[in-house]
Structures are given as structure tokens and as C-alpha cells.
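Hey,

Quick one before I head out. I ran the complex with protoporphyrin IX containing FE overnight. Inputs first:
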Amino acid sequence: MSAPMEQPLPATDSWPTPAKLPPPAVEPASPKTAAALIVPVLAGCLAAGALGAYGKLHEPTGIAVNVAGFSSPQTVKVWLATLAFLLALVQLFTALVMYGKLPVFRDASWLGGVHRWSGRAAFIVSIPVALHCLYALGFADYDTRVLVHSLLGCFFYGAFATKMLVLAKKGVPNWALPVFGGLVFTGLSGLFVTSALWFFTTFGVKF
Ligand code: HEM
């Protein structure tokens, strides 16, 4: 069978010029609704609830891990909690600059990176402390400070989970990230005040 004859191309003037091309289809912006927050918030509540349930139900082991250079396992945790809080302060500062609330370093190229990495480092540093709290001490309520601390510990990880999901999600309202970022910072600050700051003001600043 012979090859079909190639159809000559139509005359160029019949080609639609760019001016005649319909404008490229712009995807209509999906409405930024609070409904988009339902799943991230539910996931955060589940994470906080699961930590609280584990902390309450499992038998605290009381184990203590000492680290060379520190006078007790407690001081290791106190200084790690202090480091996590200082990193969170860096993250708050860079967020305030990024949101135009502080008139410094506005165009600094390192701002976004410092914001992200200080947040990640604060979270990573908090993990071994929280693991010891949950595994060795559990969710305790023998006084108000300890109850508030235990509640804040669960809240902090719940808010963190929600913030990470909001970060990855399209269609969330513009206010969502600063609000959940603020809740994460508030949680960690409260943890610092109810543990490390309490320790320093009760037993003095020591390693
Ligand atoms: C995840 C949930 C958490 C629970 C249920 C929890 C619970 C507790 C409890 C019951 C104590 C003993 C309080 C005392 O007798 O003084 C404690 C101590 C402490 N917690 Fe937590 N905590 C949690 C998360 C965290 C986090 C995220 C941090 C820091 C970033 C932290 C830092 C500390 C420190 C520094 C102490 C004092 C050292 C000690 O007594 O071992 N906790 N925690």
C-alpha cells in the first residue's frame, strides 16, 4: 500500500498569530476556605490525643540517662529544652521579618533558610527530651505546673503536625500559617517556662 500523500501545509497567513491565540487557561484560584483546615486540625488533635493517651496509660519507667559533662539527666533535658526554645525564638524573629513586622534584613537571601532550619532544629532537639518525658515520667498531674507542662507537651506536637500539614496544603486561608506557627511557638515557650525556667529559678543555672 502506497504511503498517503503528505498534505501541503496551509498558507502561513491562515496560522493564528499569537495575538489571536486565546489567552492561556488560568486555573481559577480555588477559594481559600477554612474548610481546607479540617484535615490538618483533626490530624493535629489526633497526634496530641495519642501522645496524651500513651503518656497517661503506659506505666512510667523512671529510667534516667546521664550524659558526660552534665550533673544529672534532668540538667541534660533542661539545656536541650533551653536550646529548643532559643531556636524557636530565631524562627519567630525571622517570621516577623518575613511578614514585614520588623524593618530589618528585609531582602536578606538567607531569611527563609534560617526560618526553616531553626524550626526544624528546634523540633529535632525537643524529640529526645519529650521521649524521656513520655517514657520515663508519663503524663503527670501531681501539681498545676506539671499538669500544664504535660498538656503543653501534647499540644506542641499536635500544633506542629497541623502546621506542617497546612504548609503542604493548597487553598488554606492566608492567616492559617502564621496562626499555627504562633501556636507551635506558644506551646514550646510554655514547655520551656514550665520546665527549664522553673528548674533554673528553683535550683539555679547549672550544667
Ligand atoms: C510530649 C509530652 C510531654 C509530657 C507528657 C511531659 C511530661 C513531663 C513530666 C511529667 C515531667 C516531670 C515534671 C517534674 O516533676 O518536674 C517533665 C519534665 C520535663 N520536661 Fe516534659 N513532657 C512532655 C514534653 C516535653 C517537651 C517537648 C519538652 C522540651 C522541649 C519537655 C521538657 C521537660 C524538661 C526540661 C523537664 C524537666 C526535667 C525533668 O524533670 O526530667 N517536656 N515532663
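The chain has one domain: 36-203.

Talk tomorrow,
K.
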